[in-house]
């Protein structure tokens, strides 16, 4: 079914990240849908390892310049864009000096999770939502990949609930085996600042509990990895949200 507007929100995509299943799967899904005549956009964080020169990223001035307020602090939102190498597929990068300049993803050199991973996820989720609105581009399907993207449906169904912009978009969540890590114990205060409360994940805030939480806020869940970790598999089996076992990339359009 061509002519759909499909938004991929991801934390990884080949060639910006290599050697991970998620990065490969997102690349193949987005290219397949793009080549079949759909209007595809990809959004991801501009992590410090992504070379702006190598991949020819440039700032989109008309989209940058917004501030995202997190826990009463203004954080400037910078939007960069590049075409996927060799393809006419646009990838947008959410950037901010405070959150994404560092060279590691979620853990420091000693293997400790960053204290502000929660704020980085909130900033990414809200940054994507606000930028899509500024683009004046309304997706039919939003496909989430990577734990940071799990904050998007939570925000859409709470903070943005009265905003009709995304009301007709269907949300698909792909599950991957990602390294678990605790999130800041005061994340409840930061979410409360955005009038979000009562989440089960706040009892034990972590990467996995927020992914599990987001399952209640989407229209469809699919296994991104064929075999999931025990905790993730349990949450997948217990959710009442419609779900699908692992699909190869050639079958992904059936999901949409």
Structural class: alpha/beta
| Largest sheet descriptor | 9 strands, mixed
Strand content: 15-25%
Number of strands: 11
Distance between the termini: 8 Å
- Look at the structure and give the mean pLDDT: 95
Share in helix: 25-40%
The coarse overall form would be: globular
Order of helices and strands: EHEHEEEEEHHEHEHHEHEH
Our Rg estimate from Cα atoms comes to: 17 Å
Annotation field: number of helices: 9
Strand order of the largest sheet: 3-6-7-2-1-8-9-10-11
- Uncertain stretches: none
Name its key features.
256 residues, alpha/beta, 9-stranded mixed β-sheet, two-stranded antiparallel ribbon, 9 helices, 11 strands, transferase, EC 2.4.1.21, Starch_synth_cat_dom
Describe this structure in words.
It is built from nine helices and eleven strands. The longest helix has 19 residues. Helix content is 30%, strand content 20%. The model has no long low-confidence stretch (mean pLDDT 95). With 256 residues, the chain is α/β, with parallel strands linked by helices. InterPro entries: Starch_synth_cat_dom. Pfam families: Glyco_transf_5. Keywords: Glycosyltransferase, Transferase. It catalyses: [(1->4)-alpha-D-glucosyl](n) + ADP-alpha-D-glucose = [(1->4)-alpha-D-glucosyl](n+1) + ADP + H(+).
């Amino acid at each position: 079914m061509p002519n759909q507007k499909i938004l991929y929100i991801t934390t990884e995509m080949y060639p910006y990240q290599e050697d991970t299943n998620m990065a490969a799967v997102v690349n193949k899904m987005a290219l397949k849908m793009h080549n079949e005549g759909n209007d595809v956009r990809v959004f991801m964080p501009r992590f410090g390892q992504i070379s702006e020169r190598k991949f020819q990223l440039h700032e989109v001035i008309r989209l940058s310049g917004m501030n995202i307020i997190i826990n009463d602090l203004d954080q400037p939102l910078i939007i960069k864009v590049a075409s996927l190498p060799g393809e006419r597929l646009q990838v947008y990068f959410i950037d901010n000096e405070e959150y994404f300049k560092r060279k590691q993803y979620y853990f420091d050199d000693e293997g400790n999770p960053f204290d502000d991973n929660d704020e980085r996820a909130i900033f990414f989720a809200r940054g994507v939502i606000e930028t899509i609105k500024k683009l004046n581009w309304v997706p039919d399907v939003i496909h989430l990949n990577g734990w940071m993207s799990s904050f998007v449906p939570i925000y859409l169904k709470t903070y943005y609930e009265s905003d009709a912009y995304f009301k007709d978009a269907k949300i698909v969540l792909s599950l991957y085996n990602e390294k678990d890590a605790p999130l800041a114990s005061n994340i409840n205060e930061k979410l409360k600042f955005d009038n979000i409360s009562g989440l089960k994940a706040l009892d034990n805030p972590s990467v996995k509990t927020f992914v599990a939480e987001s399952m209640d806020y989407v229209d469809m869940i699919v296994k991104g990895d064929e075999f999931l970790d025990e905790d993730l598999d349990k949450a997948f089996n217990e959710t009442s949200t419609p779900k699908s076992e692992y699909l190869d990339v050639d079958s992904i359009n059936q999901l949409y």
